[in-house]
Design a protein that fits this description.
The chain is of the alpha/beta class. The strands form 4 sheets. Strands 4, 6, 7, 8, 15, 16, 17, 18 and 19 form a 9-stranded mixed β-sheet that branches. Strands 10-2-1-14-21-20 form a 6-stranded mixed β-sheet. Strands 3-9-5 form a 3-stranded antiparallel β-sheet. β12 and β13 form a beta hairpin. The chain starts with 11 loop residues before the first strand and ends in a 14-residue tail after the last helix.
């Protein structure tokens, strides 16, 4: 392939996608003096950014393809109650993704991918602090307690092994190993069925919907336009600029474009050399009242259920469902989360659910996001973060803004080249 031509530092940039990644990229571009327009087919935080667990957990940000996933087996993944679900009618694109995912779910592939995440994880929270210092009016909350709870010590050994592998990859993480009784002293919301736990330190969380809307407010206040209902139908590199056409009839020219469209990244990115499949890994959530609100996130790893205290409600989220992003909410999956959490939570009214939601996480077969310049020096990709778009979104935006305006590829982004 011939070398990629260089382009002058852009003055006007369109960011396609108004989730965490797109808006963070817009904000950090503004820090560098760039005029930004944000385009989204629906609106701010309309995709995976609104109803997720809101964890800022660089300590356990790891590649999604892992050997443990392969142990579910075919019968398990075809069950709607399984933590990982693949509908029986899979299309060719999904089968291609699953084949690649399985190929990367080996110990050696996991270690390689984990080493790619470590430099990002070390800096992830600093970018949230930069947003706060720059006036973004939303808080990150220190997780006074971040509890991973299990029925048995045998179940807990899986995370202990993973933490050892994380440490061997060069990432520091502090944690305590607790009995069930010790865990209940910290979090009375845990039931007597919890027999073992791990308490993680130095993690945070946010209300993701509120945070992303506050980030959008800051981007607007700094002079950007955020255009909702702008489904981008065509992007053309014209040599000295990029033409962006939307279904609303707009036809504008920019110096550069950022594709931060989540699960739909491939639709626009393919023509610019982005060949990696980006598959919807859908997650569900709802909120409930609980007698004793936890002091921080509570995680049930064996059930893949994540609980986050947001105001006076507990958000309960989970599941990984590989199906098309536009499929309707499957109430069997909501029920499966509730039934998985019921024996482990004390005082949660799991039958009086509100805010039921499904969102599509953008997943790649190798578990690594796609961040950086495409075959066009004027078109950049920013997506495919899987479950870690909230945790890594601000740093992604900061590093990508550096690349767009400075021309060089930050060392942290080398493993995430969208042309790989």
């Amino acid at each position: 392939m011939p070398p990629i031509e260089s382009a002058p530092a852009p003055q006007r940039v369109a960011v396609v996608g108004a989730g965490m990644v797109g808006l963070a990229t817009a904000w950090f571009l503004q820090e560098r003096g760039v005029q930004v327009t944000v385009l989204d087919r629906t609106g701010v935080a309309a995709g995976a950014s609104w109803g997720n667990a809101g964890w800022l957990t660089p300590g356990i940000t790891t590649p999604l393809p892992e050997p443990a996933v392969l142990r579910y087996g075919l019968r398990a993944v075809l069950s709607p109650s399984s933590p990982v679900y693949v509908p029986p009618r899979a299309d060719a694109r999904l089968l291609r993704f699953l084949t690649g995912f399985a190929r990367h779910s080996t110990p050696s592939k996991w270690r390689t991918a984990m080493r790619a995440f470590v430099p990002m994880n070390r800096r992830a929270l600093e970018s949230f602090d930069a947003l706060a210092a720059g006036g973004v009016g939303a808080m990150t909350h220190e997780a006074k307690s971040f509890m991973a709870a299990y029925r048995t010590e045998a179940e807990r050994s899986v995370l202990l092994d993973e933490l050892a592998h994380i440490h061997s990859a060069g990432q520091a993480i502090e944690f305590d190993v607790l009995t069930g009784a010790e865990a209940r002293e910290v979090e009375p919301s845990l039931s007597d069925n919890v027999g073992a736990a791990i308490r993680l330190h130095d993690q945070r969380y946010i209300n993701p919907g509120q945070y992303v809307h506050a980030l959008a407010d800051s981007v607007r206040a700094r002079g950007a336009s955020i255009v909702a209902g702008a489904d981008v139908t065509d992007i053309r590199d014209e040599g000295t600029g990029v033409r962006v056409v939307t279904s609303a009839g707009t036809d504008e020219r920019y110096d550069a474009v950022v594709l931060a469209t989540g699960t739909w990244l491939g639709e626009l990115g393919r023509r610019f050399g982005v060949r990696t499949v980006v598959q919807a890994g859908r997650g569900y959530s709802f909120s409930v009242a609980i007698e004793h609100m936890p002091a921080g996130p509570v995680y049930f790893p064996a059930q893949r259920v994540a609980c986050t205290p947001l105001g006076d409600r507990l958000r309960v989220a989970g599941m990984m469902e590989f199906r098309r992003a536009e499929a309707p909410l499957d109430r069997r999956r909501i029920s499966a989360i509730a039934e998985a959490a019921r024996p482990l939570l004390r005082g949660a009214d799991l039958d009086a659910r509100a805010d039921e939601w499904v969102g599509a996480r953008p997943c790649t077969p190798d578990g690594l996001p796609l961040i950086g310049r495409t075959r066009s020096p004027r078109v950049f990709a920013a997506g495919g973060h899987g479950m870690w778009g909230i945790t890594l979104g601000p740093l992604t935006g900061e590093l990508l803004a550096e690349q767009i305006t400075g021309g060089g590829q930050p060392v942290e982004l080398r493993p995430f080249d969208p042309l790989r």
